[in-house]
Amino acid sequence: MGKLFGTDGVRGVANTELTPELAFRLGRTATAYFGRQSERPLLIVGRDTRISGQMLEAALSAGICSAGGEAVNVGVIPTPAVAYLARTLGAQAGVVISASHNPYPDNGIKFFAGNGNKLPDAVEAEMEELVLAEPDQLVRPSGDHVGTIKNRHDLSSAYIDHAVSTVKESFKGLKIVVDCANGSAYEVAPVVLKRLGAEVVVLNHQPSGCNINRECGSTHLDGIKAAVISHKADFGIAYDGDADRCLAVDEKGNVVDGDKIMCICALELMRQGKLKDNTLVATVMSNIGLHQAIKRMGGKSVVTGVGDRYVLEAMNANGYSLGGEQSGHIIFSEHCTTGDGIVTSLQLIAAIVKSGNKLSEMAALMTTFPQLLVNVRVGCKDGWQDNAAICAAIRAAEDELGENGRVLVRPSGTEPLIRVMAEGPEIDSLEQLVHQVADTIRKELKG
C-alpha cells in the first residue's frame, strides 16, 4: 500500500489529513494522467453529504481546471452513478468525494477510469508518484486553455433511469422501508422505488452534513429492523453513506447480508440462464455457508481478496455475471462496472417478486456459519504479518478449528485497524479464539 492510496482511494480526516491542497494536487494529477490523449479532459465529480464535501469539491475542481480539464460537478449522488456517468458521457475519468461508511469527519477521494472501472494498483501507484513529486511539473495551461467547471446536478436523473431499467417487474403491492443513511441515496433511492410502484417508508433522508452513517444505514441496522416490524413492511433496504452497498432486513426483522443477497440473486440468474458458468465471485470474507449453498444449487464459487475491485477483476477476466462481498458491495456485470447498492436492491426485490416467496424464505436458502469479527485499533499496521507472537497466535487458533472453520487476519485499507475474523460451528469457541488473537495483536502493536 502506498502513502496515499488505500484499498478504496485516498482517505483521512478532512482538512487535517485529506486537505484541500491534497485534493487540488489529486485533481491536477488525475486530469494530466487520464487526459493525455485529450485536448480538454472531462472528469465527472460527485460527492456524498459530508460537510467537508463542498470544500474538497472546490479544491479538486480547481486542480482539474489548473491542468486544463473540464470538471462536471454532479453534486450529491451515489458512487456508482459517477461510474455510470463517466462511462456513458465519454469522460476521461470519474471522481467521488466520499469516505463511504466512515464517520462524517473523514472524507475520501476515489477515481474511476473512463470505462467506469476502479483503478488497478499499478495506476494508483503511478498517480501517487505524480501527486507527491516535488516540484510539481505537471502542465499549467494559460489563456483559453485553462479548464472550466460545469454544475450538472440534473444528471442524477440519467442514473435513476438506468437503475429503473435494470428490472422489468412491478413492485406494486410491496411496502418497503428504506434507510438512506443520511447519505448519497437520500434523494435517488426513494424515487427509484416509487417509480417501480412500491410503497416506501423512508428513514434517515435529511442530511445535515454531520449525520451521515450516524446510527443509521447499512452499518447500524437496529433502526430499520424496528421500522420494518412497526410498519408491517415486506422488508427493508439499508444503504451506506455513498450507496455503493446495501443490506436487507426481512419481514421478521432479521438481517439479510451480502452473502445471502448474492445467494438469492445467483439462484435467480441461474434460473434465467444468465449466471456465466454458474459461477459466483466472492471474497475471502464470505461465509462458508454461501459456498455450500451455491454448490447445492449446482453452481460454484471463485474466491478473491477483499475489495470489490478485486472481485471485478476476476469477473472481467472470465466474463462472470455476479460477484461481491458480504458487506453488500455487489456487482451485476450486465448493469454495472462497480458495486451498486441501488441496483443490487432492485435485483434482490425483483428476485423476491418472481419467486412469490417472502424474503425470510429466500434467505433460508443459505445456512450461515457463526462468524465473529473483531477490529483491533493499532498504532501501526506495518509489519504485523512478520510478528512472531501474532503469527503463533493465529496458528494456534487455526489448529484449534481444524477443517471445521477458518481464521482470517488482515489490515483495514482505510483505518488504523487489524481485522480478526474466525468462522466455525460454535460461537463460544470462536469468541475465545478471536479474542486470544486480538489480545496478542493489541499487545504487540499498541499505539
Describe this protein's structure:
With 447 residues, the protein is of the alpha/beta class. The protein folds into 4 domains: 5-155, Alpha-D-Glucose-1,6-Bisphosphate, subunit A, domain 3 (Alpha-D-Glucose-1,6-Bisphosphate, Chain A, domain 3, 3-Layer(aba) Sandwich); 168-255, 3-Layer(aba) Sandwich (Alpha-D-Glucose-1,6-Bisphosphate, Chain A, domain 3); 256-344 and 357-363, Alpha-D-Glucose-1,6-Bisphosphate, subunit A, domain 3 (Alpha-D-Glucose-1,6-Bisphosphate, Chain A, domain 3), CATH 3.40.120; 371-444, Alpha-D-phosphohexomutase, C-terminal domain (TATA-Binding Protein, 2-Layer Sandwich). The chain is built from 14 helices and 19 strands. The strands form 4 sheets. Strands 1-2-6-5-3-4-7 form a 7-stranded mixed β-sheet, sandwiched between helices. Strand 18 and strand 19 form a beta hairpin. Helix 1 packs across helix 2 (53-66), helix 8 (258-272) crosses helix 11 and helix 13 packs antiparallel against helix 14 (427-444). The longest helix has 18 residues, at 427-444. The mean pLDDT is 95.
